[in-house]
Design brief:
- The chain is mostly helical.
């Protein structure tokens, strides 16, 4: 019985832990991008998109790749963004969950 209860708690809490980790990685990726640390940003964004397709992460990764002069890769990431979410708004890439919570 105790094992079942532990498993239920893990199943309930694990997704929110993963989501929080992805949000932290995305915030770090934005920080690296704004500090012109594009390789570090790409590394963080790779971790995010390999976990779950995220249009904001793909788009920001496209920007970082563009800044690194990797134009063909950048283009693929921009296109992938719109494949995942056709109505994607580029203005959302610098918004994180934490920032939206702090806005009035």
């Amino acid at each position: 019985m105790r094992i079942v209860l532990i498993l239920i708690v893990i199943v309930i809490l694990f997704p929110s832990f993963i989501s929080a980790q992805r949000e932290d990685d995305y915030t770090l990726a934005i920080m690296h991008y704004k500090n012109r640390e594009f390789i570090k940003a790409v590394t963080k964004l790779d971790k995010i998109v390999n976990t779950k397709p995220d249009p904001k992460a793909y788009y920001l990764k496209g920007y970082a790749l563009y800044e690194l002069g990797r134009y063909e890769e950048a283009s693929k990431h921009f296109m992938h963004t719109y494949f995942i979410q056709p109505d994607f708004k580029a203005a959302t890439i610098f918004q994180t969950g934490d920032i939206r919570k702090k806005l009035p």
